[in-house]
Amino acid sequence: MLCRRQVFAALCILILLLNLSLGCTANDKNKPVSGPSVKEELPDKQPDMNLPAEVGANEAGQVMILMYHVIGGEKEQEWAQTGENFRRDLQNLYERGYVLISLKDFVDNNIDIPAGKAPVVLTFDDGTAGHFRYIEGEQGEKTIDPECAVGILLDFAGEHPGFGHTATFYINDRPFGQGKYWEEKLNRLVELGFDIGNHTLTHPRLNRISDLQVEEEIARLAQVVEETVPGYQVVSLALPFGIFPAERELLGKGEFAGYSYENRAALNVGANPAKSPVAVGFDRYRLPRVRGSTSELEKWFKYFEENPKEKYISDGNLETVAIPAEKEELVNKEALSGKELILWTKQ
Ligand SMILES: [Zn+2]
Q: Which residues have a Cβ under 8 Å from the Cβ of 235 and sit 6 or more positions away?
């Protein structure tokens, strides 16, 4: 026990020194800009060895990847969430200490959020009109509809600093209705900080087509996006209908007619939170999602309230992976990629 404490203290000092030498890191972005400088703090500032325990950091815990389809309409249905209820979902997440992260940051274990916060990932499938709609003015000017998903997210993020607005839109060919704007919308999405994901060109059942057709479906959609948004790379795929192709390796890599693609993740339809990227059993090509609906969200909020140790809680430090010592066997040490593992116990 004594030995573990000594190791922990040494680690914390090392981490503090590293942070000081780097100056203002990305983790500082949510902290107030005023106050004493790092130099002034040096003489009496002690490393906060208890922070992981204080916030209950558990970076081997589960993360919700929320899956939305239609946004809009008068009434919530299985595959449709009203704009009003979507906004309430965001409010419920915010009030429970969640912060939005992108799908690619999740699978790359680049979860850069404050200590004590929980990450959540937003995904939208099918590129329907309610995801991104313009309102056209009489002079031909266009503004983002405040009732579409993009409009609601931007508005909510503006009113709730620190929550973020990142999300991935999984599209098929020519998304978001309003035909003439689709290319401009893809560029605008990326400019606004959203991601575009691959949902195949025509949304087929991937188990009913040949390997070559699977590659064609994935490669051609990636090509459409990458040629429309110069310099942008599509790096993840949401399976149409949640159906896997016979040859699963094609989800990660393939090529068609000289155009190759590479996905770092594939999303299932699923119905439960995903394992942490450092947890044993994490499978980046079979990521489950939670359906974005009032009842499903309530169900999982309740689950995490009753089982708080199952939830991913950040230690606020991108260079370390902090987990309760009793959860050590849940960590896949090969997935740490050079990050320091901190096993904490309550003092
Ligand atoms: Zn779909």
A: 104, 262, 263, 264, 265
> Residue 217 has what DSSP assignment?
H
DSSP reduced 3-state for 143: strand
CATH at 199: 3.20.20.370
- For 169, list phi and psi in degrees, rounded to 5: -100, 110
pLDDT tens across the length of the chain (347 residues):
445 555 555 554 444 444 444 433 434 444 444 444 444 444 444 446 689 999 999 999 999 999 999 999 989 888 889 999 999 999 999 999 999 999 999 999 999 999 999 999 999 999 999 999 999 999 989 999 999 999 999 999 999 999 999 999 999 999 999 988 999 999 999 999 999 999 999 999 999 999 999 999 999 999 999 999 999 999 999 999 999 999 999 999 999 999 999 999 999 987 899 999 999 999 999 999 999 999 999 999 999 999 999 999 999 999 999 999 999 999 999 999 999 999 999 87
- Ligand 1 centroid to Cα of residue 34, in Å, is 47
How distant, in Å, are the alpha carbons of 169, 190, 223, 231, 243 from that of 219? 17, 20, 6, 16, 17
Going from the Cα of 122 to the center of ligand 1, the distance in angstroms, rounded, reads: 15
Centroid of ligand 1 to alpha carbon of 299 (angstroms): 23
Cα angle: 35, vertex 41, 45; to 5 degrees: 125
Q: Which domain holds residue 289?
A: 64-310
Is 42 within a domain?
A: no
Ligand 1 centroid distance, CA of 260 (Å): 22
Contact 135, 128 (CB under 8 A): no
Tell how far CA 341 is from the center of its chain. Answer: 22
Residue at 59 is within a domain: no
Tell me if 271 is assigned to some domain.
yes
Distance 128 CA to ligand 1 centre (A): 10
Tokens of 314: 């950040």
Distance (angstroms) between ligand 1 centre and the Cα of 1 equals 51
CA distance between the termini of the chain: 11
